[in-house]
Design brief:
This protein is mainly α. About 50% of the residues lie in helices and about 0% in strands.
Length: about 120
């Protein structure tokens, strides 16, 4: 399960950097962030744990931006607003999930999630 997003007064922890791999390394299915070259199981556990945490943090953050974008696209004040069905189709979600993401995005923008202040998506 992903770790909760830090509260407003807590510093956001910076996970291990996710570096892009060269194309030739990425095309090798056995190659994954050079983990296969680590022989020491302690070092392998440490680095793979760092990557796991980094991916979780990235996924959590991306999910927040998805929710904010969904809320902005569904905003009734927009002349080009989308319905939740349209948002669901674009994001490959169910319509029920799109509705929940729109609400979550609205909460994020209001700062109603975990006592956080308003979010500036840019």
């Amino acid at each position: 399960m992903a770790e909760p997003t830090p509260r407003r007064n807590e510093p956001r922890l910076r996970p291990a950097p996710l570096l892009f791999e060269p194309a030739e390394a990425a095309s090798d299915p056995e190659h994954f962030f050079d983990l296969e070259s680590i022989d020491d199981p302690r070092a392998l556990l440490a680095r793979s744990t760092e990557l796991t945490l980094a991916f979780r943090a990235a996924a959590d953050r991306a999910l927040e931006f998805q929710a904010i974008a969904a809320a902005q696209l569904a905003d009734p004040r927009r002349f080009d607003r989308l319905t939740t069905a349209d948002i669901a189709e674009r994001a490959e979600w169910t319509e029920d999930y799109a509705k929940k993401m729109v609400e979550f995005g609205r909460d994020l923008m209001r700062g109603a999630v975990e006592g956080r202040g308003p979010v500036d998506p840019v």
